[in-house]
Design goal:
Layout (H helix, E strand, L loop, with lengths): L1 E5 L18 E2 L6 E3 L12 E4 L4 E8 L8 E3 L5 E4 L8 E9 L4 E10 L5 E3 L1 E4 L6 E2 L5 E5 L6 H9 L1 E6 L3 E6 L4 E6 L8 E6 L11 E3 L3 E7 L3 E6 L4 E6 L2 E7 L12 E4 L2 E9 L14 E9 L6 E4 L17 E3 L1 H9 L6 E5 L20 H6 L7 E2 L5 H7 L6
Parallel strand pairs: 2-9, 10-18, 12-19, 20-28, 26-27
Antiparallel strand pairs: 1-9, 3-4, 4-7, 5-8, 6-7, 8-9, 11-13, 13-16, 14-17, 15-16, 15-29, 17-19, 20-21, 21-22, 23-28, 24-25, 25-26
């Protein structure tokens, strides 16, 4: 740490004719103030400035290498100042301090210091991150951590530093899928037209007592489109397409035949492909067997990572609306598949009912998040409670708590 005095030049003053006041004069402010800066400054602790010898602080600014100021607060008596947001590890800072000695003396000084490096940095990758502006009402928010976290108290700190805001506001909660992955969803689907933003605000936050600090701030934002819900009834072999609650199309379909029954439950559109090559080996059907296939499929809307789609199946038109003959996908005519493709976006809902297949997996094979009851979803949160997306950001409160106690 380098403390450098900046002497203020003499100030012009009129003679008061012996009124007893001391005219302003320059002082060595470096002798009047003390800072917490050191060669190994802990970024998890607040940077502090204290005026000594009856002096007061008149102005303090703390800036990083990019010139951006760090938030801070002056004590009511003017004798102390402290930063109110965490510093970054391995970062150079400059404090500019102005002080007065109470006897007409004023001066300025600077303090330069570099924080010590973190043993580990927790970076966070947020989703969705598919380069789109609009998503469907079922799209969950995701956060992937660079380091596994199992400690319940540390998980709480992470949740508080993941800020979700939306207009209009909703009630939602985080769910820990595993030690490195979290999902956030509202209690109900996102409202149509909602503006949603997810931010990681734990930059510089001391995550644990083992030298782990929060990595760079990041965010994602999107708009929610129409409420699109496609309900596939495997018993009647009909797909009912609803937009904002109104039925706009009914399409004859075929779903998985016995042994390849389509998964029941709510799924979220993951992506769309104008054409895709589908091979039976990818789902465990040996090449050359009676069930083997190798097809170029058009207008394919994906709903699971394992290969379940809603797609064109011109070879089964005679069975569509009548019988289930597919290997698990929902097949329809080429014209109907094109229409479905063009009227659907990532994040829209596809729900399968009355199938003899197993239930859609909650995690790992797409977004089955909506198949988890709200009560069970809350059990997956480290905070154990819902949050409102219009509440004051808890992340800001967490950031102000510079050294969480575990």
């Amino acid at each position: 740490m380098v403390l450098t005095p900046l002497l203020v030049g003499p100030l012009a003053a009129c003679s008061g004719g012996g009124n007893g006041t001391t005219p302003p004069h320059s002082i060595d402010a470096g002798r009047l103030v003390h800072t917490s800066a050191a060669g190994d400054t802990d970024p998890g602790k607040p940077f502090t400035v204290t005026a000594q010898g009856g002096g007061t602080l008149t102005d303090v600014t703390l800036s990083g290498p990019d010139g951006k100021q760090v938030a801070g607060a002056l004590d009511p008596d003017g004798h102390g100042w402290h930063s109110t947001t965490p510093l970054l590890p391995a970062t150079h800072y400059t404090a500019r301090i102005a002080a007065a000695d109470g006897r007409g003396g004023r001066g300025q000084t600077t303090a330069d210091f570099t924080t010590k490096a973190a043993d580990k940095t927790l970076t966070v990758t947020l989703g969705p991150d598919l380069g789109r502006d609009t998503y469907g009402v079922g799209e969950p928010l995701t956060a992937e951590l660079s380091e596994p976290i199992s400690d319940p108290a540390v998980r709480q700190q992470v949740e508080k530093a993941l800020t979700v805001t939306s207009t209009p506001a909703v009630t939602g909660a985080w769910y820990w899928v595993d030690d490195k992955n979290l999902h956030f969803r509202p209690k109900d689907y996102w409202p149509t037209g909602a503006k949603v933003k997810l931010e990681w605000t734990g930059q510089g936050l001391e995550i644990d007592d083992h030298g782990t600090y929060g990595g760079p701030a990041t965010d994602v934002a999107f708009t929610v489109g129409d409420r699109v819900e496609a309900v596939v009834d495997a018993a009647s072999d009909q797909l009912t397409f609803k937009r904002n609650g109104a039925v706009v199309n009914t399409i004859p379909v075929t779903t998985g035949k016995p042994g390849f029954d389509t998964r029941n439950g709510i799924k979220v559109v993951l992506g769309q492909e104008r054409s895709v090559q589908m091979k039976s080996e990818t789902i465990g059907i040996a090449q050359g067997s009676s069930e083997a296939y190798d097809l170029n499929v058009e207008w394919a809307t994906r709903v699971t990572w394992s290969g379940e789609y809603v797609h064109a199946a011109p070879w089964s038109v005679a069975s569509q609306g009548v019988a289930n003959v597919s290997h698990g996908c929902t097949g329809m005519s080429t014209d109907n598949a094109k229409w479905f493709y063009q009227n659907t976006r990532i994040g829209d809902i596809v729900q399968v009912v009355n199938s003899k297949g197993r239930q859609m997996e909650p995690f790992g094979n797409g977004f089955g998040d909506w198949n988890v009851s709200w009560d069970d979803w809350l059990k997956g949160s480290a905070l154990g409670k819902p949050v409102s997306t219009d509440a004051p950001p808890e992340a800001a409160q967490a950031a102000a708590t510079l050294r969480p106690q575990f």
